[in-house]
């Protein structure tokens, strides 16, 4: 059946935005402090999953909820299964929004709100692609499963639960990244340097705090310090702010000097897109006379770990021709005097280098500073051949509907759900011409981008699961 996809997507605009508004309003940030048996990741993610599945039931689909951790919408019949993997959880909103992050706001043709770009907007666009096929009565000769996870931004608990309890799909895509298409993703591994809390210098670091998540460049950093000459410290801080690409503020009270640095948040897979408030604050403080664990903590952050996303200072710089550079994000920094703290580093690595290489270099750093080192979760690099039908079919649809004939699949710093299937790729919904605001304040997507994505997704599902694909 021939469908004028762009026209049909435009016809669904109002319904789509109404449903998106409903989803954005649910604060589906993982919240372990408030988890229950029914909501293992806190109330928000479970509520967003239920809301999405309820919409699909309203639209006449069969749905399944897997223990409030994952769920799926099913349509079509066939021996093979096409999977679409999206997620309903969102990153914490963070400070500094111009609009309420949990109220969908349309301004100058853009849809603002946490999740408009990552991933509620794209997830819903893909869902609407499937819904349009159903509404038009298109018969699919493969089974399509639209699968929702609830923990993409942390540990993938939801999607892992799906893959532990359900058969592996034949192939699929995840609308949780960018267009045109990602057929390769770097490996992803985190390391935590554990720090003890002793101060042994003339100056004293009472507390230091930066970063919400390992996969995010910290926008804000705060420290409380006590020095022999607090006035000189404040003057030096003001001068530092003048010279550096960060802003901040400072106040002094009975606890000491409270310093606050504001940089720029960004997704941790490309730290160059952000300005790390934490390492800048450490760089400033490391010129003073802090000693012991506090001194090591500041010297490392402000020195070897500062402004070095390609890890040259630790001697690890590495590039693969297809998959690109090894990158490092200093995502979480925490120090409490007398108690201790940690530095969490997130690495994205191409094929050709492994987490063992990283661990070797970091072990040395840990030994030199009397830190302890712990390896976190790891995902190895993922690559689907460019001539696999999942790649060629989606690329053909993308070129057809955008007119971008020269578009080619690409490799990124990853961590998308695409890697959960051998023949899995990431596909949209951020267009090359649109600013990437995922994980940032004032996250948005142009409404027209979301509608074009809807058309591309619908056409792609049709091509993958209909006779058109053969
Ligand atoms: Zn996402």
UniProtKB/TrEMBL annotation:
<protein>
    <submittedName>
        <fullName>Dipeptidase PepV</fullName>
    </submittedName>
</protein>
<dbReference type="InterPro" id="IPR050072">
    <property type="entry name" value="Peptidase_M20A"/>
</dbReference>
<dbReference type="GO" id="GO:0008270">
    <property type="term" value="F:zinc ion binding"/>
</dbReference>
<dbReference type="GO" id="GO:0008777">
    <property type="term" value="F:acetylornithine deacetylase activity"/>
</dbReference>
<keyword id="KW-0378">Hydrolase</keyword>
<keyword id="KW-0862">Zinc</keyword>
<dbReference type="GO" id="GO:0006508">
    <property type="term" value="P:proteolysis"/>
</dbReference>
<keyword id="KW-0645">Protease</keyword>
<dbReference type="InterPro" id="IPR002933">
    <property type="entry name" value="Peptidase_M20"/>
</dbReference>
<dbReference type="Pfam" id="PF01546">
    <property type="entry name" value="Peptidase_M20"/>
</dbReference>
<dbReference type="GO" id="GO:0016805">
    <property type="term" value="F:dipeptidase activity"/>
</dbReference>
<dbReference type="GO" id="GO:0006526">
    <property type="term" value="P:L-arginine biosynthetic process"/>
</dbReference>
<dbReference type="InterPro" id="IPR010964">
    <property type="entry name" value="M20A_pepV-rel"/>
</dbReference>
<comment type="similarity">
    <text>Belongs to the peptidase M20A family.</text>
</comment>
<keyword id="KW-0482">Metalloprotease</keyword>
<dbReference type="InterPro" id="IPR001261">
    <property type="entry name" value="ArgE/DapE_CS"/>
</dbReference>
<keyword id="KW-0224">Dipeptidase</keyword>
<keyword id="KW-0479">Metal-binding</keyword>
<dbReference type="InterPro" id="IPR036264">
    <property type="entry name" value="Bact_exopeptidase_dim_dom"/>
</dbReference>
<dbReference type="GO" id="GO:0008237">
    <property type="term" value="F:metallopeptidase activity"/>
</dbReference>
């Amino acid at each position: 059946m021939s469908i004028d996809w762009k026209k049909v997507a435009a016809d669904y605009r109002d319904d789509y935005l109404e449903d998106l508004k409903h989803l954005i309003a649910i604060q589906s940030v993982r919240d372990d402090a408030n988890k229950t048996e029914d909501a293992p990741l806190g109330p928000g993610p479970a509520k967003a999953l239920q809301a999405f599945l309820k919409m699909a039931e309203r639209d006449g689909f069969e749905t399944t909820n897997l223990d409030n951790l994952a769920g799926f919408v099913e349509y079509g019949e066939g021996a093979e299964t096409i999977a679409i993997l999206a997620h309903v959880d969102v990153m914490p909103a963070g400070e500094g929004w111009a609009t309420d992050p949990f109220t969908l706001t349309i301004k100058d043709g853009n849809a603002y709100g946490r999740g408009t770009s990552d991933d509620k907007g794209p997830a819903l666009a893909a869902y609407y692609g499937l819904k349009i096929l159903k509404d038009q009565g298109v018969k699919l000769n493969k089974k399509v499963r639209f699968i929702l996870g609830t923990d993409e931004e942390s540990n993938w608990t939801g999607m892992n639960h799906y893959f532990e309890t359900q058969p592996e799909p034949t192939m699929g895509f995840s609308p949780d990244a960018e267009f045109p298409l990602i057929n390769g993703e770097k490996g992803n591994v985190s390391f935590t340097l554990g720090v003890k809390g002793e101060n042994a210098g003339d100056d004293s670091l009472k507390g230091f705090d930066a970063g919400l998540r390992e996969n995010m460049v910290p926008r804000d950093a705060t420290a409380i310090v006590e020095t022999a000459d607090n006035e000189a410290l404040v003057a030096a801080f003001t001068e530092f702010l003048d010279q550096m690409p960060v802003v901040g503020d400072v106040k002094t009270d009975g606890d000491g000097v409270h310093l606050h640095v504001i940089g720029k948040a960004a997704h941790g897979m490309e730290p160059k897109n952000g300005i790390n408030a934490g390492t800048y604050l450490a760089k400033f403080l490391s010129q003073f006379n802090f000693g012991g664990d506090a001194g090591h903590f500041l010297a490392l952050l402000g020195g070897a770990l500062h402004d070095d996303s390609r890890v040259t200072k630790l001697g690890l710089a590495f590039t693969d021709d297809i998959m690109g550079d090894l990158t490092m994000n200093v995502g979480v920094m925490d120090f409490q005097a007398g108690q201790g703290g940690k530095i969490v580093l997130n690495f994205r690595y191409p094929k050709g280098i492994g987490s063992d290489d990283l661990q070797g270099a970091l072990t040395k750093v840990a030994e030199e500073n009397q830190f302890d080192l712990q390896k976190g979760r790891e995902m190895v690099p993922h690559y689907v051949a460019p001539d696999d039908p999942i790649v060629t079919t989606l690329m053909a649809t993308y070129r057809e509907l955008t007119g971008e004939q020269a578009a080619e699949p690409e490799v990124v710093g990853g961590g998308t759900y695409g890697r959960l299937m051998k023949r899995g790729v990431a596909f949209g919904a951020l267009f090359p011409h649109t600013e990437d605001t995922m994980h940032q304040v004032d996250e948005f997507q142009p409404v027209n981008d979301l509608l074009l994505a809807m058309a591309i997704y619908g056409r792609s599902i049709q091509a993958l699961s209909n006779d058109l694909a053969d």
